[in-house]
């Protein structure tokens, strides 16, 4: 009896979704097997008690991201792109928070893709101008999440879940145009590796 290898579509894939923030950062982990989606966790990194020291918050984001990566070993990161606002300082801080989350994943060779907020909302609700509450409501229906009173208190968690689900809907197509892992970058740019003789190749946590 012939034994055929499993199709890549049949193998489970773990997607980490992140909704960047400087006070509260949402994150979610989903497992996708074919068309089946299972929510493993969705919650927030709460930094409100850390005061106004932005560097301390960035370290908190990095450390927590590494903990989550080592616990779940996600295959891909989907992260929401910073929105454009009138407060330049807030935009800079948000961009740094996003960059630190991306750096944590790249340190473990996890590729990433950015999605505009309107793209995420459109993918989940059908409307690019949907509110956080509407996104959360649609997710509860689509993924059969627990009632609101049993769900995480912060809508940033459901926003992160929406980012992960949006990436699933894209079926990984954006990985070709989106971010690449550090290992892939070195493979595409061997001259960089030759010049960085003291650099060590990052390894994925076991």
UniProtKB/TrEMBL annotation:
Mitochondrion in keyword set: no
Free-text cofactor note: Binds 2 Mg(2+) ion per subunit.
Subcellular location(s) per record: Cytoplasm
UniProt-annotated binding residues for Mg(2+) 1: 19, 156
Alphabetically ordered keywords of this record: Cytoplasm, DNA damage, DNA recombination, DNA repair, DNA-binding, Endonuclease, Hydrolase, Magnesium, Metal-binding, Nuclease
Cofactor(s) of this protein: Mg(2+)
Function according to Swiss-Prot or TrEMBL: The RuvA-RuvB-RuvC complex processes Holliday junction (HJ) DNA during genetic recombination and DNA repair. Endonuclease that resolves HJ intermediates. Cleaves cruciform DNA by making single-stranded nicks across the HJ at symmetrical positions within the homologous arms, yielding a 5'-phosphate and a 3'-hydroxyl group; requires a central core of homology in the junction. The consensus cleavage sequence is 5'-(A/T)TT(C/G)-3'. Cleavage occurs on the 3'-side of the TT dinucleotide at the point of strand exchange.
Name the record gives this protein: Crossover junction endodeoxyribonuclease RuvC
Species annotation: Hymenobacter crusticola
Lineage of origin: Bacteria, Pseudomonadati, Bacteroidota, Cytophagia, Cytophagales
């Amino acid at each position: 009896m012939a034994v055929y290898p499993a199709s890549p579509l049949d193998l489970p894939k773990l997607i980490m979704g992140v909704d960047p923030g400087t006070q509260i950062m949402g994150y979610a982990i989903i497992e996708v097997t074919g068309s089946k989606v299972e929510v493993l966790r969705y919650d927030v990194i709460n930094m409100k008690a850390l005061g106004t020291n932005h560097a301390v918050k960035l370290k908190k984001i990095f450390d927590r991201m590494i903990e989550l990566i080592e616990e779940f070993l996600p295959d891909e990161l989907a992260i929401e792109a910073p929105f454009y606002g009138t407060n330049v300082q807030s935009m800079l801080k948000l961009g740094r928070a996003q960059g630190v989350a991306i750096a944590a994943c790249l340190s473990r060779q996890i590729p990433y893709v950015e999605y505009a907020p309107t793209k995420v909302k459109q993918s989940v609700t059908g409307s690019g101008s949907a509110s956080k509450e509407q996104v959360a409501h649609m997710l509860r229906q689509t993924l059969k999440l627990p009632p609101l009173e049993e769900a995480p208190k912060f809508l940033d968690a459901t926003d992160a879940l929406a980012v992960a689900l949006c990436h699933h809907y894209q079926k990984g197509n954006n990985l070709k145009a989106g971010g690449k892992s550090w290992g892939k970058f070195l493979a595409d740019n061997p001259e960089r590796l030759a010049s960085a003789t003291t650099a060590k190749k990052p390894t994925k946590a076991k």
